[in-house]
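Hi there. Long-time user, first ticket. I'm pasting a complex I've been working with (about 636 residues overall). I'd like to know whether the download I got is complete or cut off, because the file seemed smaller than I expected. Thanks.
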Amino acid sequence: MRRRTIIRTNPGAWLLVPLTLLAILYARGFVAGKLGDAYAPAVSSAGLAALGFIGPLCAALGAWEAGRLRRARWWSAPHVRHPVAIVVESQAPIIIAGSVALLAGAAIDLMAAGGTAPDPRPLVVGVAVVAAHTLAGAALGRWLPLAVATPAALLASFAWMVLPRVLEPVWLRHLNGLSLELCCATWADLAPGAILGSLAVAGGMILGSVALLSARQFDWMVAAKGGLTLAAGLFVGVLLVAPLGTYPTVVRDQSSLECAGGGTDPLVCLWPEHRDQLPVAADAARRAIASWRAIGLSVPLTVREGSPDIATPGELRIAISSASQPANILEALADGMLPPWPACAETSRFPGADAAEYVRAWLLDTAGMPPDELARRFPDPAPVDPALFPDAGGPPAPSVMSIIARVRSLATSRQLAWMTANLAALSTCNRAPEITPGG
Amino acid sequence: MNWWLAIRRVRASTIAVALLAAILVAIGRLAVTVPALFAVQGLALPVGLLAPLIVSTSVSHGLARGDEATEAGAVRPILLLDIGYAVVAAGVTLGAGAGLQWTGWSDLGIEAGRNGIGFIGLSLIGRRALGRNAGAVVPAVVALLLAFFGGDASGTPQWWAWIVTPPDDPRSWVFAVGFLVLGVGLSIGRTGRAHAA
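Hi, the file is complete. Here it is re-exported in full:
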C-alpha cells in the first residue's frame, strides 16, 4: 500500500500526533513532577505510566482497522500476500503511533529528571505491550462485528491494565507491564522476573493474535490455537512474576556505588546519581561518626547507601536524594544508627518505639545539627484540648528538646548509658525505654 | 416485527442488562485507581460505573445490524422503532440499577443506571456523527477519557466527570439525560429527512 494511502486511511496515522501530544501532556502533568533522582531505570519506567491509556486506545484502533478490512470482505477475497503480511501492513502504523507516543512521554520524563540516557528495558516492554494490545484488538476486529469489537477491545485492554493492581495475589500486577512504572528507588533495580514475565505475556498475546488473524475461517481449532498460545504466555509469565512482591524490583548491584574516604576516615559510598553529594556526605559522616564515637557509641566506619530495609552488620546504611541538604544527610546518618525495628512492630506498637524521636534528636544534636534546625524537626507537642479529645488520657509526651538538653548536660558515661538503654528498647518488643534520664 | 427484533438482537440487550446487574452485585464496588492527568492521587473508579457500556454496546451493535437500503423501503417506521429501542433500553438500565439499589443488592445501581442513559445517548450521537459502526465506540472513549482526566488535584471527581460524580449531583443527570435527548434529537432529524426523501 502506498504511504500516502496509509496516512489517509489508517487511524494510527491520524492519531500519531494527538496521541503523542496526549502522552507528552500526561508525562508533564502527572509523571514528571513526581520524579526524583535521574536514575535511568526509575525515570524510563515512569514513562510506562502512559501505557494505561495508550494500550487501550491502540487495542481499539487495532480492532477498528481490522474491522474495516472485515467489512470490506477483504479476508474472504483472494489475496496473494499472506494474511500476516496484510495484518502487519494495516496494524504497523498503529503500533508505531503507540510506541512513538510512549517513547515521547518517556523522553519528557527523562528530560524533566535531568537524565541523559534511558534504560532500554522498560521501553522494550512498553513497545511489546503496545504491539500485543494492538494485535489482540485486531484479532477481535477480525472476527467480531465492528460495533462490538472496538469497545470490547478498548474495555478489555483497559481492564487488563488497571484491574490486576487491585486484585490478589499482588504479583498479578506484574503481568501487564504497567507495574514497571512502580520502579525504583535508587537502591533498587528492575526485577528480571517482572521484565521477562510481562514480555512473556505480551509475546503470548502477539502469537495468539497472529494465530487468530492468519486463519481464513474461524473454527474451534483456530480459537484453541489462539487461546492456548495466550495461555502459554500467561503461564510462563506467572512462573516468572510469582516470586515478586508489591514492587517489580530487586536490590541494586552494589558494585556501582562510588566511594570516598577510607583509612582513618569513614568510607562513604553513594549511588552514582548522588555523586555530587559525596564530598558533603563524607564530611558529615566524618564529623558525626567522630562525635558519636567520642561519647563511646559503637559506630561502623563504613557508610553505604542502600535499602533501608536491609541492615548489614558493620555498615551504616543511609538513604538520601540528589536534593538532600547537609541537614538531610545528617538525618540519614542518624536514621542509619537506629536499629531495625523488631518483628512485632508490624502488627502493634511496641513500648520502645516511644524512644525513637529522642534517640534521633540526641544523635543529630551530638552530630552538630544547628539548634534552630533541630527545634524545627522536633517541635514541642501542642496541648490537647480535652473538649475536643475527651478520651486523650495520660500525660503528654515530654518535650524532645528539653529531654535532649537534659541528656546532653550529663556526663559522657551517663549519656552513653541513656543511649544504650534506649537503643536496646528500640530493638526489642518488650523493653520499656528510659526517655527521662534518671538521677 | 419479528425480523426487527431478531436483527436488532433485542434478546442480547436483555442479557446485557442481566450481565450488568450481575456485575453490580458481584464486583460493582471494586474500584481501580486510574492515573489522572491533573491529580496527584489517581481517581478511584468503581468497575460498576463502566459496566453499563455493555448495554450501550449491545444496543449500538443491534442498531448497526440493519440493512439501511432495505429498511428505507420498510412499511414500519424503523428509525422510530430504533429510537424507541434505545430509549427503552436506557430506561430499563436505570430501572434495573434503581431496583438493585432500593433492594439493597448494590449501592451503585442508580449511578450505573444514570451512566447507562448517558452511554446510550452517546452511542446514538456517535452513530449519527461518525457512522453507525462507530456508535458503540464513542461512549467507551468518553468514559475512559473522563476516567483518566476527570480528577482534580486531590483525586476527587471534577463536576464535569459525570460518570463518577455522586448521583445526587444534578449536573451529572443533566449530562446523561442531555446526551440521550441530543442523541434522540439527532436521530429524529434523520427520520425526518428519510421521510422527506
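A couple of notes from our side: The beta strands of chain A are 188-190, 249-251, 258-261, 267-270, 302-305, 316-318. Residues 3-251 of chain A form one domain.
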